[in-house]
């Protein structure tokens, strides 16, 4: 079998760090793993990608040639890449028993106004890849009910767009008290009717089942592997 994992989440939510963690872990457990950087705006990566969107186009190059600011340039570069390279990517990604990891950009526009990634995932599926989407939320942003609901709703936008098995992970949990987040998640916000309705919807969707990731934990990579394997029904 062949597998592809899309690592998504808002800007700074630890996508590249998680990609690196997973890549190293797969090497340790002798899984063949290929890593792709799909972020045309990043300056630094903690890993060495096999394919790097920046070798073909960077957000800075777009900014230099087109009248766009940094966010518009990132989206333009991403769309340009998929318009011109989707066939190349799909033709070159055909490794038996392989795990592909895609480190994606954080801009929500790429998921709510654009279906390049979703179409690319569908193309991989046609080539026999099982795909899943891991969505990271920076847990330091989960400090009040409003931000929890907002972040979970944004995660739903990504899930709706990607149409793949979905894994929700709260990152940077070394910086927060997980129990406080869990209490906020379970609070039914009875003093605000709109939040109460939203909360019920989010609970019904199973979105309160978040995995907590702390990079100082020895179990972090194993937890990620377990969740991804579960999404793929790996070994069943
Ligand atoms: N304390 C703490 N910091 C973390 C953790 N994971 C990542 N970071 C830090 O968070 C920052 C952002 O991490 P990245 O992995 O670059 O995040 P990203 O989502 O790839 O960021 P963009 O690509 O810019 O959207 C970096 O300074 C990391 O070192 C964690 O578990 N705990
Ligand atoms: Mg990154």
Automatic annotation (TrEMBL):
GO terms for molecular function: ATP binding; GTP binding; GTPase activity. Keywords: ATP-binding, GTP-binding, Hydrolase, Nucleotide-binding. InterPro entries: Gpn, P-loop_NTPase. The keyword Oxidoreductase does not apply. Binds to RNA polymerase II (RNAPII). Belongs to the GPN-loop GTPase family. Small GTPase required for proper nuclear import of RNA polymerase II and III (RNAPII and RNAPIII). May act at an RNAP assembly step prior to nuclear import. This is GPN-loop GTPase 3.
